[in-house]
Design brief:
The complex is a heterodimer of chains A (234) and B (632). Chain A contains 10 helices and 10 strands. By secondary structure, chain A is an alpha/beta fold. In chain A, the strands form 2 sheets. In chain A, strands 6-7-8-3-9-10 form a 6-stranded mixed beta sheet, with helices on both faces. In chain A, helix 3 packs parallel to helix 6. Chain B is mostly helical and 632 residues long. Classes of the chains: A alpha/beta (234), B mainly alpha (632). Chain A: It holds the Pfam family ABC_tran.
Chain lengths: 234, 632
């Protein structure tokens, strides 16, 4: 297994957010983490990379327990994280944003350069010197994914990459994610948009109120519309 | 005309060092969100170490090499301070960070005195830049011209560093979003240490470059830090170009202000700063901060009115204090009266800091103004003590009305820096306006009326006024005004949404605190029979902060107990050692790192640990909320 999470409990102050969350991702797999707004998807990702300080449980990445490591160390082992709110560095240009994400090449993992990312997201190639703050939402989303890829990760946590984007950009995003998958990356993608998740994912987990409610293949989820209605329908 | 040009050049050459120090402070703040009070100390250390090295190794290589090596040595010292001290307090409230770095400043002052002695030192001239050239018939030192060129050169080098290297790009990214930088695999610890070392290097360079121009003295640190605070408030914290523009502006204002108002040239700078703050509170090149976070934010347990038993204990304590003159001697009584005066001063600062969430670093201004107010009444109007005690604090009130109006426009570190700058301005007026205030010689013979002239009577008078004052301050905490003030402190947006005018509420709190400090100051004037500029100087302000911190910032009783313990210790220490600043500084650092909740907070924690709260109370939960808030 690429990533194994088990018994994950997280708190924000007095509020208990995640209850014994567990899931697995195999090498080269694309796994969807589905759930409504506020279900705990972002907190799960933030907990895995150590941005939520009050957390307990086991997080094994490539067989090693990383739950006690500082954020930068977890990321340097090849666990990339793309945050939900994008958080591009608005003062920095596209190129400079990539410089921040740059890490040495990793054996056995696809190596990314700015040129390769411009191939993945041609829009970015046309605005290399533009500050992140002067880009559209879709372009910022591409930038933040590209920035994480510059760290040559072997697994990427993608937090709601389709959120708030125009349908055309969403399609482009799905293509890019499939390209990343072909490169051998493992991907965990959190989504509220089931349609988008279906385009790219092999398996899915459903989280609701901080607990895992379902785990199975996309086909199994398809075959059980009552689960979808109970946990995902608006 | 020629004269004005020369004056302008002289201003520009002073701007160079100011810019170096201010840019270092700004870079550090941008990434680490810490206002490094010790920056002035590093500036001074740079000058002293450079003096020793250039004195030892002569010649151009000795001089310029000596300056460079001095800056490197000082920046290593800075990096050590970051690793040993600052790393422990990154998540502490801003007030603690300011206090800890101020503690280091105090320690450095005594260390400098120990190593280099009290005399001002005269360094060598810079080889190759000893002469002067004729410019429009006037002689301008070539070294000044070198400094004028150096400012833009350093600005350019810094720009290249931040835009042309990966390290610089990381620093700029971290200035915006530290967590995201870590989430991209960057080790913040290393980044912070290197940024701090660079900032300290710039401060040390600013100091080292001063040695051919002026003597090296142990008062360099506080004088530069106040100017630097003014510069970064005008230019905008975190902006290097802002530091450059504001350094030039402030230096030119100083150079020409001397021509307009030779006695109080600081006033010109102050006026410009006031205008900038009204138009752009975040400075010329700064960016508006998000919602201000609470300055104190450590109140783990909610305040509640006293229980019957506690009221009894307080009454007993007052009665016990009132009985003191029956058996204590004159010396003990006068020391006790002084302690009482500082109890009121600390309580007024505590009100502003914890109830209002406004950590003032210049509260002594209103204390000192109250003292001068009483002295003016006696000296110029021949008023008796009773009238002077009533009217004197009005000067403190007036100062708080004026300065407070500007200060409450800011929050957090900006607020702290501005209060400090105002206090320093008040100090420099008292110090320089010799005709009115007597300058350094102070004002003497401010004696109480005959009925209160015995130590016993004056003690009782002080005890009465202080007890009433502290009582009123505590009542205010639980008044509707106090609730509004606490709401504005905890969430300015939410409180404004329910109709509380944050600025005017905080302004009133500022005035209340200033007035009570003024009452304390007036009492001190009659206790000592004299008034000096030191009454409103920075060390007095910091004394107040340490008292509140020592006692514990959570409760009014903390301020009272802190004042008693601190003042008694300070008076005792002064009589025992020459190195009082070193010990005081070390105490502050230790307090901040090891006992951030102070004596009363520590005792309360102990009580709660020994006797856990009952099941029906919601206390543990409330504690968690507060902890979470403090952590944010």
């Amino acid at each position: 297994m690429k990533l194994e999470v088990s018994g994950l409990n997280s708190h924000y102050g007095p509020a208990h957010i995640l209850f014994d969350v567990g899931f697995e991702v195999g090498a080269g797999e694309v796994v969807a983490l589905l759930g409504r707004n506020g279900a705990g998807k972002s907190t799960t990702f933030r907990s895995i990379v150590g941005l939520v300080s009050q957390r307990t449980g086991q997080i094994r990445f490539e067989g090693e327990d990383v739950s006690r490591l500082p954020t930068y160390d977890i990321v340097r082992r090849g666990l990339g994280y793309v945050p939900e709110d994008r958080r591009v560095f608005t003062e920095l240009t596209v190129e400079e944003n990539f410089v921040v994400g740059r890490q040495p090449a990793r054996p056995g993992v696809a190596t990314w350069t700015p040129e390769r990312i411009y191939e993945l997201f041609p829009n970015l190639g046309e605005m290399r010197k533009r500050p992140g703050g002067q880009m559209s939402g879709g372009e910022q989303q591409m930038l933040t994914i590209g920035r994480t890829l510059m760290g040559n990760p072997s697994l990427v946590l993608l937090d709601e990459p389709s959120e708030g984007l125009a349908p055309k950009i969403v399609e482009q995003m799905a293509d890019a994610i499939l390209t990343m998958k072909r490169e051998g990356l493992s991907i965990v993608i959190s989504e509220q948009n089931l349609h988008f998740a279906k385009l790219i994912s092999d398996r899915a987990y459903i989280i609701e109120k901080g607990r895992m409610r379902f785990s199975g293949t996309m086909a199994e989820l398809e075959a059980n519309p009552e689960i979808r209605d109970a946990y995902l329908a608006v | 005309m020629e004269f004005l040009l020369v004056q302008a050049l002289s201003g520009l050459s002073s701007a160079a060092s100011l810019f170096l120090v201010a840019s270092g402070l700004s870079i550090i703040f941008g990434v680490m969100r810490i206002v490094n009070f010790a920056h002035g100390a590093f500036y001074m250390l740079g000058a002293y170490v450079a003096f020793t090295l250039t004195d030892r190794f002569s010649g151009p290589l000795g001089f310029w090499g000596g300056i460079l090596v001095a800056c490197l040595i000082v920046s290593v010292v800075g990096a050590l301070m970051e690793m040993l001290l600052l790393r422990r307090i990154y998540h502490a409230p801003e007030l603690f960070q300011l206090l800890a770095t101020f503690g280091v400043t105090l320690m450095v002052q005594d260390i400098v005195l120990l190593i280099w002695g009290p005399e001002d030192l005269m360094g060598p001239r810079a080889p190759g830049f000893t002469g002067a050239i004729e410019l429009l018939g006037r002689r301008v030192p070539t070294y000044d011209l070198l400094l004028i060129g150096l400012g833009p050169l350093v600005l350019g080098l810094l720009w290249l560093l931040f835009h042309g290297t990966r390290w610089g790009v990381l620093v700029r990214a971290a200035t915006q979003d530290r967590d995201m930088v870590a989430a991209l695999g960057v080790n913040q610890k290393w980044l912070f240490t290197s940024v701090f070392a660079l900032g300290v290097f710039l401060a040390a360079l600013g100091g080292a470059l001063q040695i051919p121009r002026t003597t090296v003295s142990h008062a360099m640190d506080l004088s530069i830090i106040v100017e630097v605070f003014v510069v970064v408030v005008i230019g905008g914290l975190g902006s290097v170009p802002g530091a450059f523009v504001a350094a030039v502006l402030v230096s030119e204002l100083n150079a020409f202000g001397i021509l307009v108002l030779p006695k109080i040239s600081m006033v010109v700078v102050f006026l410009v700063m006031a205008v900038v703050l009204v138009v752009r509170p975040w400075g010329l090149f700064g960016k508006p901060e998000g919602t201000p976070r609470a300055a104190a934010g450590l109140s783990i347990r909610p305040w509640k009115p006293m229980s019957g038993v506690e009221r009894m204990l307080v009454a007993l304590a007052v009665v016990a204090a009132a009985a003191l003159p029956l058996f204590a001697g004159n010396y003990v009584l006068s020391v006790s009266t002084e302690i009482l005066v500082f109890v009121l001063f600390a309580a007024s600062l505590h009100f502003l800091m914890t109830v209002g969430g406004l950590a003032s670093f210049g509260h002594a201004a209103y204390f000192g103004l109250g003292a001068y107010g009483a002295a003016f009444m006696v000296k110029y109007l021949g008023a008796p003590m009773e009238l002077a005690l009533l009217a004197g604090p009005l000067l403190g009130l007036a100062g708080a009305v004026l300065f407070g109006w500007f200060c409450v426009r800011l929050s957090g570190v900006y607020f702290a820096m501005l209060t400090l700058a105002f206090a320093q301005i008040a100090w420099s007026v008292a110090f320089q306006w010799v005709e009115v205030t007597g300058g350094d010689n102070g004002m003497l013979s401010i004696w109480p009326s005959s009925w209160a002239s015995s130590p016993q009577a004056f003690f009782w008078l002080t005890l009465g006024i202080v007890a009433v004052g502290v009582g009123v301050l505590r009542m205010l905490v639980f008044s509707p005004f106090g609730f509004g003030l606490r709401a504005a402190r905890d969430s300015s947006l939410r409180s404004e949404a329910i109709g509380i005018n944050r600025k005017s509420t905080q302004w009133v709190a500022f005035i209340v605190a200033g007035t009570f400090a003024g009452v304390a100051g007036s009492l001190l004037a009659f206790l000592k029979g004299s008034v000096f500029p030191e009454n409103l100087a920075i060390p007095t302000s910091v004394d107040g902060l340490v008292m509140v911190l020592l006692g514990g910032i959570e409760t009014v009783s903390g301020a009272v107990i802190g004042a008693i313990v601190y003042k008694a210790l300070a008076i005792w220490l002064m009589s025992k050692t020459e190195l009082s600043k070193l010990i005081l500084g070390a105490t502050i650092v230790l307090l901040v790192v090891a006992f951030p909740k102070g004596i009363v907070g520590f005792l309360e924690d102990l009580r709660h640990r020994l006797k856990p709260p009952r099941q029906n109370g919601a206390k543990p939960e409330a504690a968690l909320v507060a902890k979470a808030e403090a952590a944010e």
